[in-house]
């Protein structure tokens, strides 16, 4: 009796890479695909929530890389879906830098500090590049030494350093996204959410009704715990005790999930693969939303982003008002990253609100009103995300990237972390899903050829035996 849970391909994860991979497979005739998603929704790190009367994006929030010679595929999807977006201009942020006592740094000082930071970042990159080219161990030691013994930075230098390296890297580093697709960035501000693009994509190959996916090929709340592979196929076990069999698996879990060993592999993944996974750095990026009874901050397009200069790097540094996106919403967003994100996730929202209010009162005075609501996403502590995106160094070891991407027998890997040029971006996840499924389709074609050749060989062998027996008789 055939196994009802047997299919050609199992896709683990229904983020943008999993959905785009499934779409390409079904368009190419492999439609017995099953998508196993650990949560109760599709989208992965693209996630909207209603807050303060508007729709806000907890994860990916921008379409980065627009206006260049090539068209960004995610921008095209947004255009087709008529997704509402607002141009974001970070360049004015450097002229809206507040010190601890609420004074704005004069534009001359801000511009000088910014130029110095950019020059120093470019110099550092050149050193890194020459280290990669020379592959000289002594140089590496020197650069590590200079990293660990930095000169004391002033609050404005720390703030600009944070903004440069955690936000505006395109101005310093030759990031493919901006080189290929253009330098503009658009904030998604649509009540249907950024995730609407995924629903539109899913609709093209899954049965849906009134925006809801009803197709049994998408299985929600299915936490994959184990992947077993043999010569003939793959067996996937979920934590609720279900078994799924397939010829292949596409694993679109984030690099943070792979590092956390939520999923076990039988036989274990080879050492070259596990080392590559462990050598990836995961960035945690937390947007904290605060709703106020009225706005007390300067508004206008050139005031959208503002910066708090403090002696602690990344401490409530980068702020944005949401008035450009949603006029009259009275919402501020502050972005924290990495260690600050992890610290915030571990404390209560009340403590976070208290810290944020103290910083805002340092900038705008003691009379400002208290926030009436707060929203703190927790990407690091989410067992199905474990971080926000991959943070590869600019001059990354190419072998590491190849090993991250390479399949292990019948398990194929996809996601923004496997994108050589666009890791960390939504379009990186989208394009990686397409690329992985194309590689898998090629593998399926080869396997079918091998089977056909094998069957032809067996038929020939049987015919020869038959002929031989006939002649002998």
UniProtKB/TrEMBL annotation:
This is Polyamine oxidase 1. Residues 132-144 have a biased composition (Acidic residues). Pathway: Amine and polyamine degradation; spermine degradation. Residues 16-441 form the Amine oxidase domain. Gene3D superfamilies: 3.90.660.10, FAD/NAD(P)-binding domain. PANTHER family: FLAVIN MONOAMINE OXIDASE, POLYAMINE OXIDASE 1. Keywords: FAD, Flavoprotein, Oxidoreductase. It comes from the Eukaryota. FAD binds at residues 17, 37-38, 224. The keyword Membrane does not apply. Residues 127-150 are annotated as: Disordered. GO terms for biological process: polyamine catabolic process. It comes from Abeliophyllum distichum. GO terms for molecular function: flavin adenine dinucleotide binding; polyamine oxidase activity. Coiled coil: none annotated. SUPFAM superfamilies: FAD-linked reductases, C-terminal domain (SSF54373), FAD/NAD(P)-binding domain (SSF51905). Its cofactor is FAD. Pfam families: Amino_oxidase (PF01593).
């Amino acid at each position: 009796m055939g196994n009802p849970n047997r299919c050609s391909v199992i896709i683990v994860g229904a983020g943008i890479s999993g959905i785009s991979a499934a779409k390409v497979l079904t368009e190419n005739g492999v439609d017995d695909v099953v998508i196993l998603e650990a949560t109760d929704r599709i989208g992965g790190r693209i996630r909207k929530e209603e807050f303060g009367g508007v729709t806000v994006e907890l994860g990916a929030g921008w379409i980065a890389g627009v206006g260049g010679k090539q068209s960004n595929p995610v921008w095209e999807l947004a255009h087709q879906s008529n997704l509402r977006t607002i141009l974001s201009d970070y360049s004015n942020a450097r002229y809206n830098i507040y010190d601890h006592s609420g004074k704005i740094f004069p534009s001359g000082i801000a511009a000088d500090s910014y130029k110095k930071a950019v020059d120093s970042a470019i110099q550092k990159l050149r050193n890194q590049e020459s280290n990669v080219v020379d592959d000289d161990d002594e140089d590496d030691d020197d650069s590590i030494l200079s990293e660990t013994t930095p000169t004391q930075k002033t609050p404005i230098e720390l703030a600009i350093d944070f903004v440069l390296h955690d936000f505006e890297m395109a101005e310093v580093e030759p990031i493919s996204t901006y080189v290929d697709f253009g330098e503009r960035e658009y904030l998604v501000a649509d009540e249907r959410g950024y995730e609407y693009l995924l629903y539109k994509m899913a609709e093209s190959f899954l049965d849906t009704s009134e925006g809801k996916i009803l197709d049994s090929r998408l299985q929600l709340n299915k936490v994959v715990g184990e992947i077993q592979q043999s010569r003939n196929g793959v067996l996937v076990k979920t934590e609720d005790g279900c078994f799924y069999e397939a010829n292949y698996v596409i694993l679109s879990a984030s690099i943070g999930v792979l590092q956390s060993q939520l999923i076990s592999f039988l036989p274990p993944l080879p050492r070259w693969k596990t080392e590559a996974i462990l050598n990836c750095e995961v960035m945690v990026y937390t947007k904290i939303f605060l709703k106020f009874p009225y706005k007390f901050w300067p508004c206008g397009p050139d005031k959208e982003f503002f910066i708090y200069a403090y002696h602690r790097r990344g401490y409530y540094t980068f702020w944005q008002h949401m008035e450009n996106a949603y006029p009259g919403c009275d919402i501020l967003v502050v972005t924290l990253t990495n260690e600050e994100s992890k610290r915030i996730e571990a404390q209560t929202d009340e403590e976070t609100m208290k810290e944020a209010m103290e910083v805002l009162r340092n900038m705008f005075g003691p009379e400002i009103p208290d926030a009436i609501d707060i929203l703190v996403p927790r990407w690091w502590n989410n067992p199905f995300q474990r971080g926000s995106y991959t943070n590869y160094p600019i001059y990354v070891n190419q072998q590491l990237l190849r090993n991250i991407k390479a399949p292990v027998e019948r398990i194929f890997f996809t996601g923004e972390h496997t994108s050589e040029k666009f890791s960390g971006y939504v379009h990186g996840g989208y394009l990686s899903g397409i690329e992985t499924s194309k590689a898998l389709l090629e593998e399926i074609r080869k396997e079918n050829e091998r089977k056909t050749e094998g069957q032809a060989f067996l038929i020939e062998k049987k015919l020869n035996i038959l002929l031989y027996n006939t002649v002998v008789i």
